[in-house]
């Protein structure tokens, strides 16, 4: 799925998502002292907006220009950096205290995408990945969160690796898998 696909998807509707932050983000980040946060695949910015309201210095990245324009317009006076980035060919900045990726596809045949996201987490920082339970089984070419957890190595500590019921179903999905790890 390239920039054209995502621009067409975002261009096909006035708004695709609710604008509310993801449940797992709120549950896992509430109480963590704010710092620098990277929202991977930020879409229309619901998570980035919430993080900024909590005091985080947020950078939202997405492959879609249309999604980023919409996210910036919906941000109002929130101070968020928006950047169009294709993780297949470009790496984000590093040194983030939180790298958050909700419902972002990590393709097995493009290992550099996962490695670039992992490299963005600062020592002492957190990685938060959420996916729809069972999504990877329907899309065999994607890493499952537990596979990502197994690949992290000794310089990471797994904080959460579990399946949860969503408070609001999304497109028929009622269960999510949440992975939160902390870099040592």
TrEMBL record:
Q: Name one GO biological process term.
A: methylation
The answer to whether UniProt assigns keyword Transferase to this entry is yes
What Pfam families does its record include? Methyltransf_25
**Keywords noted in UniProt:** Methyltransferase, Transferase
Domain named Methyltransferase: residues: 38-125
Task: Give the Gene Ontology MF terms in alphabetical order.
Answer: methyltransferase activity
Official protein name in the record: Class I SAM-dependent methyltransferase
The record lists the lineage as: Bacteria, Bacillati, Actinomycetota, Actinomycetes, Pseudonocardiales
């Amino acid at each position: 799925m390239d920039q054209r696909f995502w621009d067409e998807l975002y261009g096909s509707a006035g708004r695709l998502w609710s604008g509310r932050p993801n449940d797992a983000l709120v549950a896992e980040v509430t109480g963590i002292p704010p710092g620098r946060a990277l929202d991977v695949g930020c879409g229309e910015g619901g998570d980035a907006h919430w993080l900024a309201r909590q005091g985080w210095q947020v950078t939202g990245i997405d492959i879609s220009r249309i999604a980023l324009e919409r996210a910036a317009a919906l941000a109002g006076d929130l101070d968020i950096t928006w950047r169009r980035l294709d993780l297949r060919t470009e790496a984000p900045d590093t040194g983030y205290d939180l790298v958050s990726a909700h419902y972002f596809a990590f393709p097995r045949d493009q290992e550099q995408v996962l490695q670039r996201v992992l490299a963005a987490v600062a020592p002492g920082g957190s990685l938060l990945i959420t996916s729809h339970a069972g999504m990877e089984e329907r899309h065999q070419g994607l890493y499952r969160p537990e596979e990502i957890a197994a690949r992290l190595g000794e310089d990471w500590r797994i904080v959460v690796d579990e399946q949860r019921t969503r408070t609001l179903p999304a497109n028929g999905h009622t269960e999510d898998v949440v992975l939160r790890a902390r870099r040592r």
